[in-house]
Amino acid sequence: ETLSQALYAVFRALAWTPERIADVAAGLAPYLRCFPDMPAGTWVVENVGTRVAWRRRGLVRALLESAIERGRLSGHSTAQISCLIGNEPAERAYEGVGFRVVEERRDAEFERLLGAPGFSRMTRHL
Fold this sequence. Notes:
alpha+beta; 4-stranded mixed β-sheet; 4 strands; 19% strand
């Protein structure tokens, strides 16, 4: 709900017509059905990665550890990250710094469009 509320606020700010919003909403529906909730007060980390040439050098771990520390220093007690179901390298990287899968959201249309069954939500205590 949080993501969709933010998206619709942006659409209104851009003065999109109701027809244009409806077209975009139809395309976003499978994504929004799978995207994890972001509980209030949770430090949300997203879109962590490196270029192929720089992989397997510990950079993702360093980014995650830095993000986790920033969350801790900001007074949060829980961190969250989402992962495409089936993205085992990402899941292993997140588990390596203490995240654990707490929920999965799957959708057949999402899988047809994106090639993954959905998203998992992973959390860890800070």
